[in-house]
């Protein structure tokens, strides 16, 4: 499994709103006949429930993965995103949509639209525990600490030069 580095971009009305560096690798799917998938007598293996499936009706806006790698339509990639707030990573499965090629500093770059399909259970549950712990710690230091309206919120800002 070869990991590559790329950038996950959030676009709004054709403009880039935020960019996050991610690690990713391609997932090879084994195609199995439908009879094997829906066999009621087969026992569930431990590998079947590694991911929580994300509802297909949820839209996260225009998300694009930009890298020096060529992407193919309907390919599955696993993105490794780092959460600075919790100092941990989150693994997400994403399906590649339409792709495009462009030049940046005289070298070819590839951009692909991504749709999140599933999130790793272990990472998601760890992130939930860390968030609950952070909120509990914040509630303890709330009255003697900062005013809740003045607390820093999670935001990404970029300067253009």
What is this structure, in a nutshell?
By secondary structure, the protein is mainly β.
Oligomer: single chain
- What distance separates the N and C termini? 37 Å
CATH architecture of the domain at 4-27 and 55-140: Beta Barrel
Percent of residues in β-strands: 35-45%
Instruction: Give the H and E element order.
Output: EEHEEEEEH
User: Any idea of the CATH topology of the domain at 4-27 and 55-140?
Assistant: Thrombin, subunit H
Pairing-aware structural class of the strands and helices?
Answer: mainly beta
Residue-averaged pLDDT, rounded? 79
Shape: globular
Q: How many alpha or pi helices?
A: 2
Using the coordinates above, name the CATH class of the domain at 4-27 and 55-140: Mainly Beta
Strand tally is 7
The major pleated sheet works out as: 6 strands, antiparallel, barrel
Q: Provide the low-confidence segments as ranges.
A: 39-47
Helix content: 10-25%
| Major sheet strand order | 1-2-5-6-7-4
Write down the Rg: 19 Å
Summarize the structure in words.
This protein has a domain at 4-27 and 55-140: Thrombin, subunit H (Beta Barrel), CATH 2.40.10. Helix content is 15%, strand content 43%. It has two helices and seven strands. It has helices at residues 34-37, 121-140, and strands spanning 4-12, 15-26, 51-53, 62-67, 76-83, 88-104, 107-120. The protein has a six-stranded antiparallel barrel with strand order 1-2-5-6-7-4. A hairpin with a 4-residue loop joins strand 5 and strand 6 (88-104). The radius of gyration is 19 Å and the shape is globular.
């Amino acid at each position: 499994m070869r990991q590559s580095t790329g950038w996950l971009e959030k676009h709004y009305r054709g403009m880039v709103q935020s960019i996050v560096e991610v690690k990713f690798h391609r997932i090879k799917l084994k195609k199995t006949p439908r009879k094997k998938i829906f066999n009621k007598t087969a026992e569930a293996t431990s590998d079947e429930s590694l991911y929580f499936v994300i509802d297909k009706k949820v839209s996260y806006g225009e998300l694009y993965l930009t890298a020096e790698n060529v992407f193919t339509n309907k390919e599955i990639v696993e993105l490794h995103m780092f959460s600075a707030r919790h100092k941990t990573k989150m693994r997400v499965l994403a399906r590649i949509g339409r792709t495009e090629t462009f030049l940046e500093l005289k070298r070819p770059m590839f951009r692909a639209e991504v749709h999140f399909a599933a999130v790793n259970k272990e990472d998601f549950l760890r992130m939930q525990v860390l968030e609950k712990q952070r909120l509990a710690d914040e509630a303890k230091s709330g009255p003697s600490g900062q005013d809740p309206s003045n607390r820093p919120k999670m935001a990404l800002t970029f300067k253009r030069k």
